[in-house]
Amino acid sequence: MQRQVFITGGTGYIGRHLIPELLQGGHSVTALIRRGSESKLAADCRSIVGDALNQNTFKEQIRPADTFVHLVGVAHPSPAKAAQFRAIDLVSIREAVAAAVISDVRHFIYLSVAQPAPIMKEYLAVRSEGEAMIRASGLNATFVRPFYVLGPGHRWPYLLLPIFWFCSVLPRTRRLRPVTLNQTIRALVDSVEYPSTAIRILDAEKIRLAGK
């Protein structure tokens, strides 16, 4: 079934790869962008100019979307960016959830992070709060939870693959094994095409399975 998809963060690392896949699959995609970013979108993607931190700039333009994909986040997260996580990641998910509820969105997809994890405490805390907001809203939702996405420009973790492999053989830490960009995109596309009717969580193992 063709989906009407509204995306925030569509010009970012994940969004730039996700949108063409959705369009190729026959879905209609509208992306919220900042003015001047139109050229970063695929040709067949509709764009609206607004501010992801202020629902009043985009909530009236979400309809007729049935699916909301939220990808907004601080680029290259690090412990030094704790204040940015709260000012950008947390505010954007709050505004997105409120706008999605008003617009009667049927399915909300949130790019979250593996939980729990031994590092990036503030980043994890903000993503956990975002998930809690979605749960409280009553929206049907899918939480896609990679720990780290390997791909162009994101390859330094390959140096740590022996550690990640060790994590993968321990049931309690398998969620910390990195996933590839292609696997993550495939999991997001599947989430759009097969919407949840409650709360669904895709951890690293399920993301990898989606990419096969």
Could you characterize the architecture of this molecule?
- It is a single chain.
- The chain has 212 residues and is of the alpha/beta class.
- It has a single domain (4-148, 180-210), classed as NAD(P)-binding Rossmann-like Domain (Rossmann fold).
- It is built from 6 helices and 9 strands, in the order E-H-E-E-E-H-E-H-E-E-H-E-H-E-H.
- The protein has helices at residues 15-24, 82-102, 121-137, 161-168, 181-193, 204-210; strands spanning 4-8, 28-33, 46-49, 67-70, 107-111, 141-144, 149-150, 179-180, 199-202.
- The strands form 2 sheets. It has a 7-stranded parallel sheet with strand order 3-2-1-4-5-6-9, with helices on both faces. A two-stranded parallel ribbon has the order 7-8.
- Helix 2 runs parallel beside helix 3 (121-137).
- The two termini are 22 Å apart.
- The mean pLDDT is 90.
- What is the terminal-to-terminal distance? 22 Å
The CATH homologous superfamily is named NAD(P)-binding Rossmann-like Domain
Number of helices: 6
- CATH topology description: Rossmann fold
**Overall number of structural domains:** 1
Query: How much helicity do the residues have?
Result: 25-40%
Main sheet overview: 7 strands, parallel
Overall 3D form: globular
In the CATH classification, which architecture applies?
3-Layer(aba) Sandwich
Structural class, from helix and strand content?
Answer: alpha/beta
Q: How do the SSEs run, as a string of H and E?
A: EHEEEHEHEEHEHEH
Q: Strand order, biggest sheet?
A: 3-2-1-4-5-6-9
